[in-house]
Design brief:
By secondary structure, the protein is mostly helical. It has 10 helices and no strands.
């Protein structure tokens, strides 16, 4: 019971942050799931929960979604999600921990570096962006913090950013989960646990949506980045 209280509290906090900042919230949850279920079960379970959380953000921000961005992102994301799921089943647990640890630390560095960049680019660049990050997501669980700078640089803010990123990521999760299922990498228990965790994330998304116009995400993100880096070091040392 205590373990599930921690998991569901982390899911609620993660989804509130994602509802405010658009991304970076889900990755708070992943280390908690890894500690509770092990990396092999946690990554597919996390994908189920994230699919539900992303779909809730899609629903709350539907009128603001930029569908050309979603289309080009999905074009690259779907095939590489399948490839990443296959690689996930072939990597030993030790390598998965190191990959995940490197990703967590890299996501903090990437977000800090790209927050200073104001580059612009064509919408078609979202195809290779989707390809690269869906591959990372299928192996390591998430790629949200890496994606945010590209959506922001393209000019999407607040609801447009949150809704467009969520829909593209939801499509990626669907392809990834279908591949996990086909490859035997996700158990019925992981599906059930993911639905439980994801249901809590709907409430967090709703709360974050209401706070979006009232509260800055900067304080949240500073604390989150410190936690992410700490968990990343822990995974690298395992």
């Amino acid at each position: 019971m205590d373990q599930w209280l921690i998991i569901l509290s982390a899911a609620l906090a993660a989804s509130i942050v994602a509802g405010i900042a658009g991304t970076g919230g889900g990755i708070i949850l992943l280390p908690v799931l890894v500690a509770s279920f092990g990396v092999r079960d946690a990554v597919p379970l996390y994908a189920v929960a994230q699919l539900i959380g992303n779909l809730s953000r899609v629903g709350f921000n539907w009128p603001l979604i930029r569908f050309p961005v979603v289309f080009w992102f999905a074009l690259g994301a779907i095939p590489c999600s399948i490839l990443g799921a296959w690689l996930f089943t072939r990597m030993p647990d030790t390598e998965l921990f190191k990959f995940l640890g490197g990703f967590l630390i890299g996501s903090v560095i990437w977000r800090r570096w790209c927050s200073r960049s104001n580059t612009s680019f064509s919408v078609r660049w979202f195809a290779p962006i989707g390809a690269v990050f869906s591959l990372v997501s299928a192996i390591g669980g998430s790629a949200g913090p890496f994606l945010a700078p590209f959506y922001l640089s393209y000019g999407l803010v607040k609801g447009a950013f949150i809704g467009s990123e969520a829909l593209g990521t939801a499509i990626m999760h669907i392809a990834k989960l279908a591949s996990y299922q086909e490859l035997g990498a996700i158990s019925p228990a992981a599906w059930m646990n993911g639905v439980v965790v994801g249901s809590v994330m709907i409430l967090g998304t709703y709360t974050g949506k209401n706070l979006l116009e009232k509260l800055s995400a900067q304080m949240f993100m500073n604390m989150i980045e410190a936690a992410i880096a700490g968990f990343g070091l822990w995974f690298l040392l395992k």
